[in-house]
Amino acid sequence: MDLNKMMMDYLAEEGFRPHETPFGIAFKYEGINFLYFNDPEDEQYFRLMMPAIFEVTEDNEETIMRVMNDVNGNIKVVKLYTMDMENEDGKTKETSVWVAFEILADSTPELSDIVPRAIGLLKGARVAFLAKLEEVADH
Fold first, then answer.
1. Most C-beta atoms within 10 A of its C-beta, which of 15, 69, 105, 136?
2. Hey, what CATH topology would domain 3-138 get?
3. What whole-number distance in Å separates Cα of residue 36 and Cα of residue 11?
4. Residue 5 burial (CB < 10 Å; 0-12/13-18/19+)?
């Protein structure tokens, strides 16, 4: 099973206009960026991500961690975490919150069942994170 090829084919068939990046397969849905990561050492590992949904700074890091923990405990299958990325200049590092949908696919995954549900859960986790962050900021 080549899950990476299956994902690329599925996305193209569904009109997502996917393209390969150094990180995996990138595509947009409803104006939101998504990345599918291929793990060549585990062909059943399926990880779809919504990258960089919120910037983390020294001022908001503690609040971000509390809010991510809350969302992680309340939404199944997805998890939020921070990731450091270099800016285009290659010198400056930026930390942001990413949302991941991770499962172990069986040997004949039905991507038409998995991908829409994954996208929905990722979007829901993003909404929950931003709402909780706003709620915490209002107190």
1. 105
2. Yope Regulator; Chain: A, (3.30.1460)
3. 10
4. exposed
Spatial contact of 39 and 24, defined as CB atoms under 8 Å apart: no
The tens-digit pLDDT sequence of the chain (139 residues) is 788 899 999 999 999 999 999 889 999 999 999 999 988 888 889 999 999 999 999 999 999 999 999 999 999 899 999 999 877 777 768 899 999 999 999 888 999 999 999 999 999 999 999 999 999 887 7
Token digits for 134? 């706003």
- Token pair listed for 26: 């990138």
Distance CA 5, CA 33 (A): 19
The whole-angstrom separation of Cα 51 and Cα 68 is: 14
Contact 97/129 with Cβ under 8 angstroms? yes
Residue 25, by phi and psi: left (phi above 0), alpha (psi -120 to 50) or beta?
Answer: beta
Q: Hey, what are 87's tokens?
A: 């800016």
